[in-house]
Amino acid sequence: MTNEKIDWSKKELVIKNNRMLSRWVLRLAYMVQMQDRIFLSNVILFTGIRTTKHQFKSVLTYMVQTEYQIKLMECVLFRRHDLSLMLLDIDFNSLSWAKKQTYEWFKTLPRQLMYNHGYVLDSKTFNYILGDVGINATNIVDVPKITDEAKDKAREYAESWFKEKYDQEAKEMKKHEVNEDDFDNLMDMWYTEFEWYPDDKLSCFNW
What's the CA gap between 123 and 164, in Å, rounded? Predict the structure, then answer.
């Protein structure tokens, strides 16, 4: 330690990240983080982890409903630019597109494994799962223990998804001041903490 005095008048304050937080960035953070959750849901459901009947249903319902939400975000952020980021005015065509895309994804799930648990990959089953508000009504998903290795792979998957999405949507990303190296910022953002801030207050925060 030195007793030498510092002349702060000659020091320059450099703020490395002074971007204002926006609703758009919050929605993107949700999409990034949900890729991690979708990956882990697949690990739980389809890699031989022992689950109870309730756990399987809970995780499956969470996964399907989350995938639908991701498709809605996809529509709002990248397909339509006239919709409110508060998700209050999504029109029928956009809702139908998100549902159709989610159903097409649902039909790609492992057919035999789903059948072994009592699920058929048809529209009736899909609509039932998508509309089930009871199984996870408390917003707590019943999950078995997940290994640290699976968690690490889930994060890696989310990062690869972000890099691919950035390449696809670079123009829109840059418009909202999102950089190629922002994965950690988005992945670790507590987006729910800011959800109910009005836009004028939200922009007071840097990210």
Answer: 30
Q: Which residue has the tokens 């029109």?
A: 91
pLDDT tens-digit series, residues 90-114: 899 999 999 999 999 999 999 999 9
Q: Is 176 in contact with 24 (CB distance < 8 Å)? A: yes
57 vs 59: CA distance, rounded Å: 6
176-207 pLDDT, tens digit per residue, is 999 999 999 999 999 888 988 888 899 899 99
Give dist(CA 143, CA 162) in Å, integer: 25
Distance CA 185, CA 178 (A): 10
Q: Comparing C-alpha atoms, which of 165, 196, 199 is closest to residue 78? A: 165
pTM of this structure: 0.87
CA 150 – CA 183 distance, rounded (Å): 19
Task: Give the C-alpha separation, 62 to 69, whole Å.
Answer: 10
Residues 12/200, Cβ–Cβ less than 8 Å: no
